[in-house]
Every structure is written in structure tokens, then in C-alpha cells.
Amino acid sequence: MARIVVLPSAVADQIAAGEVVERPASAVKELVENSLDAGATAIDVTVEEGGRQLIRVSDDGSGMDRDDALLALERHATSKIRNAADLVGVASFGFRGEALPAICSVSRLVIETAPEDGAGTAIHAAGGKVTEVRDVARRRGTTIGASQLFFNAPARQKFLRGARSEWRSVLETMSIIALTRRDVRFTVTNDGRQAMALPAARSLRDRVSALWGAAAADRMVDVEDVQGVVQVSGLVERPADVGTASRRTFLTVNGRPIRDNGLLRAAEAAYKSTLAPGLRPSLLLDVVLPADAVDVNVHPAKAEVRFRDRWSIERCVEEAVRRALGTFDASAALGVRRWSATAPGWTARPADVELLRPAAASDGALFESATNGASAVDHDEDRAFAHEGNGSAVRPPEPEFPPAPPVETPPTQYVPPLLQLRRTYMMFEHDDGVVLIDQHSAHERVLYERFMGMLERGEAPSQRLLFPLTLHLAPAEAEAFEANRDVLARLGFEVEGFGGHTLLVNAVPMPHPRFDAERCLRETLAALAGDRDASSHARHERLAATVACKAAIKAGDELSPGEMRALFVALGDTTLPAHDVHGRSTIVQLSWSELERRFGRQ
Ligand code: ADP
Ligand code: MG
Asked: pTM of the full predicted structure?
């Protein structure tokens, strides 16, 4: 007896339908994507009972004539590709020609469509069978209503969840689509209540604002970066705001929403040293790259992609986010932040550390590195704060010094007058408000990046001591020394074990004239005692952060005006000036708008 039979096509359609439409949200997604593929500029989605009872999607797209509308219900009927070659770099959301027949096979379907205003076609079908075709009058576009999903597939219907849960999925699906196609106007209604009303938006920021409220958009910094053929743009959460609201992530590659943990992890890596452990930022990023660098056709729902060179794309993403976090706009704010509103270009302009990156005239010997020699004040002093070796922050010459050589110097920029408050903060005024800088955190950030640079390049300027220091350590500290001995040497601490728990220190780094090497080394070893961090890379960072913390000027240290200027310039030259190395803010802004609000002026 034959055991194998070919399934009747109705059964095959239902099985296929299970793959395309699992639940109301997936039907909504397919229908809305069809509307987008048809060039719609406005799409209205109506559901009842979270889509269990009804899903209706109405658009102003191209519409269909009668023949096409009937054909659209056939399996593998598509207007979007003609042959296999078209699959490469296909730009439409759909191309398999499966969604409409799949939805039709498990619901009661009504299509009303017209290619021009006026005469259109209405098609009724149930369980995959067309029951009625007639003329209707309607505007150009298409409305497709699918009711009683799975009415003829009880096994599937059992898997539907409650109306509220299905509605949440519909909203989630629509949020993703709305973030992807900011140019389209959307409304979404459930059981007569409108949940989304999104006008066409000019930017992701505007769309986020319409979708989740202005406060959500305010927490985000703009990303806008091109590296070679890879373009990364979007919004990422300001480190100081991470953890204050629920986390949202969203990624597109070449305009398609995707899921990709690798890219998210790369973006999160950019937050390294700016967030307390366990916190994860909201990230909304669009990645654009040449079509042949990516294969979108991996996952049936096309939510995953395969990159030809994943590593380099992840690195572009990380760098783009890191640059965004390095802008002044990424710093924390007290109360409302209206900087962008009052100062066009402030948030949108990447690398706004420009504000902190003037070439300062300076008597800032405090922050000078020992590489320039022990005679503290010479005309190269500000160079200590530039990224080592690029010489970009050479200050304009002061009258008493010979003119500085014309290295690729940025045009002289204005360093605002800086005021030290409570021997702890530096304050200055900007067009948009008041800015406070924590002097210890700032110096710590400067030193951390310098130490990391030394560790990466393996050059450690250090100063030989005339009389070696002798340090007596507790057992745990001696152990910490042994564990970090090589890294300490690379930072410029030349130390010999001297039997037992005694160290002999022959040479020390000289990050600034007030640096107390003995105290720094003691405190560092005390802080590292008992620290068991497995990976050596993490150990580098930990040590650089600890030495930076111990070596930096403290709250309570009085700074001269020149020292403040030098610190200001050095901070501006770091990659993440607004964040210290423990996940706290280095810079806090107080906008005039917030002050005006507090004083009832607006
Ligand atoms: P696919 O999107 O993969 O082509 P579908 O089954 O989703 O397959 O749709 C089949 C065809 O029906 C599409 O190729 C398109 O030509 C047409 N179609 C579906 N929805 C619409 C719509 N809203 N407006 C205009 N044409 C549509
Ligand atoms: Mg489709």
C-alpha cells in the first residue's frame, strides 16, 4: 500500500502559512511591508482584539488592477522579482510571493484595491477560496482586511495568546517598521483606540520623539559616521542616562530591520569605561554598506543577515558610537536639555569636543608629562595633553617664548574663562548654559587614556630616582604586585622585588609635577590586592584605571588658571571627555532653559 501521497494544495498552503503567519503580528508585518513595497506614504493599521479578531491595513500605494489582485492570492505570485538573479540586492521587503496566499488560507480576507482613484476591485475569500469579486469605488491604494485568523485551523488557533499579549506584539512590530520607514505616516488602532499616530518624520530623532516621547529622544546622542564604504548613523543613549528607563535596541542594515547581537555588542563596547557594570544602553543604529557586502536572505523572516567581513563592520560600529560618546553633547545634564534647540548644530555636529579643544595658552605645568624633561615650564607644555605624538594641541606662542613650530595646529580657539569651585570643579559659561567639570574625574580620564596608550605602544617614559624608594607591603599587596609586575613596568615603574614583601623602586613615571609616585604605587597595590581578574586585557585596563585614579589630582587641590586651561585642553583631546573611567560623569551641563524654567522665566 502506498504510504506517500502528495498533499492537496489547500493543506500545503496551510502548512506554508504556519511559516509566514505565526500570529497576528506577523500578518501585520507582511501586510504593512506589502504597502511599503507598493510605495505607500500613509498606512493605517486597525486591529481588534490584538489582531485575533481583525487585522486591517490600508494604504495609499500603487494599488492593483483586478487581474493582479486575483493573481496576488496565488502562491509564488509576486511582482517584485522575475528570476533568481533578481534575488541579489533585492530592495523590496517581500519577494517570495507567499504572504497573501498564506494569510488568505487561514482567514477571511477582503481586498479592496484600485490602481487609480475611482474604479477598483473588491475580492472576498475565505480559507484560501475566492468567494466574491466585484467593483468598488475607492481612492488609489489598497485595503486588506483579514478577520478570524486561523478560523479553519483550530490547532494553530490554540497557540494564539490573549488579546493583550498579541496586541503588544503588534505594537512592537509596528514600532520597528515605524523606526525603519520614518518617511511614512502611520496610525495604529486597537479596539477603536488609537495607539500610534506618527506623522512623516525628517529624522530618526523626530520619529523616536513621536513614538516614545520627547524625553526618550532627549536621552540620546546622535551618531553620524562614515568609514570607507560603511556608514553608521542613529541615536545612542547618553551614558549618564543609561539605566533610567527601559532599554530599547533597533538595528537596520541597508534599510532592513535586523537582529544582530554582534553589532549590538560592538556598539556596547564603545561604552567601555563609561558605564557601571551591568548597565546596557539603548541603541538605535542604521548601518549602510555596499549590497554585495551583506547577504540579507539568510533567515526566512529576514531578521538576520550575514556579513562578508563582520569584524570590520563591527569595528566601524564601535568607532562610530565611540565618537558620538566623545562629543560634548554626550555629557550629563541637570534637568531639561535644550541645547540643541537653542544652538543649532550643537548636537548634530559630531566631534563637538571642539568646544573643549582650543589650543590654550598655558602655564599649566601641572599636567605636563615628564617626557618633556623635568624643567617644568617650557614652550611645549601643552603637548603633554595632546594624544601622544600627534602634536595637535600645540598652543599659540606666548610673547616671552620663541614662536612654536607650525605643526598641524588647529586655528587658535577660545578657551573660556574657567572658575574653580570648591577646589573640586571647574566651571565655565557657554552659549547654551553653564558647564561643570569635575577636576579629578577629568584628570583621571586624561591619564587613563595616556596610560592605555603607553600600554598599547609599549613606551613608558619614566624618571630614574636618585635614591630608590623602599616599600614594605602586606602579603596581599605583594601578591598584587607580582600579578601586575609586567604592566607596572610598562607604565614606567621600575621595581625590584627585594626579598620578602619589600620592593625597591628605581624609576617612576612622571605624569605631572604634583605626582606622588610612592603614594600612587602604594594605593594602587592596595586597591588591586585581592583582585582576581582573569583576562590580561581586562587587567591592563583595570591597572591603567587604578593608576590613573591614584595619580590624578584630587578634589581639594587648588588649581592655577593655567593648570585649569591645560586640563581643559587635555580633556578635550581625550576620546571620551564627558565620562570618567568608573561610569560616572566628568562634565555636567545646566542649560539656560533649565535655569529659566526654575526661575519661572519661561
Ligand atoms: P511578495 O510581497 O513576496 O511579492 P505577497 O504575497 O506579499 O508577496 O504579495 C503578492 C503580490 O501582491 C506582491 O508582489 C504585490 O504585487 C501585490 N500586493 C500585495 N499587497 C499589495 C499592496 N498593498 N499594494 C499593491 N500591491 C500589493
Ligand atoms: Mg509581501
From this structure: 0.76
